[in-house]
Design a protein that fits this description.
Pfam families: PTS_EIIA_2. The protein is α/β, with parallel strands linked by helices and 147 residues long. It is built from five helices and six strands; from the N terminus they run βααβββββααα. The protein is globular.
């Protein structure tokens, strides 16, 4: 998977959202700003629906919120580095400071799973995670994850 095909530079953000809800709203707003055919509300509802099934916090301060939308034709990603970790109901009960959010077309279940797996693998690389956490701005965050 070539990350640059699903993650736009404008969808990498260093931010201080404060809560799980606020970070999901931030993700939704970033996507809606880059993809005008999508409303931030429909994106938010898709991500929130998945979170209600169970937290996407995978541990080690990392979450991979994701959802499906029938109104998109290709996967869309957002990377957020929280300047202050947020409670996220992660499996290790630790707050989250790195989120890789993913939206996929409703009918592309296999691609969805493959993309999630590839991102989880990338985020299991301690060196990449360390660099992401050191990123000082949005451009550096994007550079690190797409290197």
């Amino acid at each position: 998977m070539e990350l640059r095909t699903i993650l736009q530079p404008e969808c990498a953000s260093c931010a201080t959202p404060g809560s799980k809800k606020k970070v999901l709203e931030l993700v939704s707003n970033l996507i809606a700003a880059q993809y005008p055919t999508l409303s931030s509300q429909e994106v938010f509802e898709s991500l929130l629906a998945r979170e209600k099934v169970g937290s996407t916090g995978i541990g080690n301060g990392i979450a991979i919120p994701h959802g499906r939308l029938s109104s998109i034709e290709h996967p869309i990603a957002v990377l957020v580095k929280c300047t202050e970790p947020v409670p996220f109901d992660a499996i290790d009960n630790q707050p989250v400071d790195l989120l890789f959010a993913l939206l996929v077309p409703s009918e592309q279940c296999q691609e969805h799973l493959a993309t999630l797996s590839a991102m989880a693998e990338k985020l299991s690389d301690k060196q990449i995670v360390k660099q992401l956490r050191k990123a000082q701005d949005d451009a550096e965050l994007f550079r690190v994850i797409t290197a």
